[in-house]
Amino acid sequence: MLKEILMPILSLGGMSLLFGTGLALASKKIGVETDPREEEVQEALPGVNCGACGYPGCDGFAAAVIAGNAPVTGCPVGGASVAKKLGEIMGQKSEVNEKQVARVLCAGDCDNAVEKYNYHGIEDCVAASMLADGSKECGYGCLGLATCVRVCPFDAIYITKKGIAEVDREKCTACGICVAACPKDLIEIIPYSSLVQVACKSKDKAKDVRKACKVGCISCKICEKVCDYDAIKVENNIASIDYEKCVDCMVCAEKCPTKAIYADFEHAVV
C-alpha cells in the first residue's frame, strides 16, 4: 500500500526535477542577455513615462539608447543633466541644444475676444471645438477649457482669470504632450530664452480678425518690414518668427498695431 502511494510521488518528483533542469539549461542556452547598462540608463531617467522621447515610456527609451536607436540627448524632460548622465554611461558626447518651452500662441482672453455663444457643455476643448469651432468668433482661439492643463504631467499649464491657457516656463519641460492635445494647434515649442512671440494663430483675413479679436494678427506686414534680421515673415495671413534669426530686438512688437506680438520688455537686454 505504501509502495503504491510512494511510486507516483517519486515519479512526479523525478519528472519535475528533469523538466526543471531542462528548462534551466534551455533558458541559459537561448536566453537573451541584457546589457547591464540598461538598468543604469533606466535609473538615470526621470521615470515619468510621458512618451515625449518618442518611445513607450522610460524603459522603452532606455532599451533604444542601449541598442543605439535613440540619442543620449533624447529625453526632453531630463534635459542637459540627464543627457550628461546617459553620455557618461554610454561613453558618448551629450551636447544638448538650448532649453525649450511650450507657449500658447493666443492672447484672445475674455477682454479681447468676441464670444458668438455661451457654451455650457463638456469642459473639454476637443468636445467644445466640435460645436461650430467653439464659442469664440475666432475659430483659431483658445477655448480655455483646460484640456492641455489636464494632460500636462508637470503641472506647467494653467487657465488665467481671463479664460485662456498659459504656460509656466519654469515648470515646463517641453515634453510636447500639450501640443498634441490642443485641438486648435495653438501650442508650440519655442526657445526658453526667447522674449518675443506672435500670440495669434488666426489665418483669417484682416476684416474678419478685427471683428473677432482686438489683439489678432491682421497680416499688415509692418513687423516684416521693420525687422532688420529677416526673422519674421507673414504667410497665410499670420506672422511667424524664425528663432534662429531673431535677436529679441523687439521692434516688431513695438510697431505691431494690434499688439498681436508679445514681447517681454521687462527682461530685455539693453
What topology does this entry show?
Elements: H1 2-30, H2 36-44, H3 57-67, H4 79-90, E1 100-104, H5 125-129, H6 147-151, E2 157-159, E3 165-167, H7 177-181, E4 187-191, E5 196-198, H8 206-212, H9 222-226, E6 232-235, E7 238-241, H10 251-255, E8 261-263
Antiparallel strand pairs: 1-4, 2-3, 5-8, 6-7
Helix pairs in contact: 2-3, 2-4
Key features?
single chain, 270 residues, 3-methyladenine DNA Glycosylase II, Chain A, domain 3, Alpha-Beta Plaits, two-stranded antiparallel ribbon, 8 strands, globular
Please provide a written account of the structure.
- The protein is of the alpha+beta class and 270 residues long.
- The protein folds into three domains: 37-90, Electron transport complex subunit B, putative Fe-S cluster (3-methyladenine DNA Glycosylase II, Chain A, domain 3), CATH 1.10.15; 98-193, Alpha-Beta Plaits; 194-270, Alpha-Beta Plaits (2-Layer Sandwich), CATH 3.30.70.
- Helix content is 34%, strand content 11%.
- The protein has ten helices and eight strands.
- It has helices at 2-30, 36-44, 57-67, 79-90, 125-129, 147-151, 177-181, 206-212, 222-226, 251-255; strands spanning 100-104, 157-159, 165-167, 187-191, 196-198, 232-235, 238-241, 261-263.
- A two-stranded antiparallel sheet has the order 1-4. A two-stranded antiparallel ribbon has the order 2-3. A two-stranded antiparallel ribbon has the order 5-8.
- A hairpin with a 5-residue loop joins strand 2 and strand 3 (165-167).
- Helix 2 crosses helix 3 (57-67) and helix 2 packs antiparallel against helix 4.
- The radius of gyration is 28 Å and the shape is globular.
- The model has no long low-confidence stretch (mean pLDDT 88).
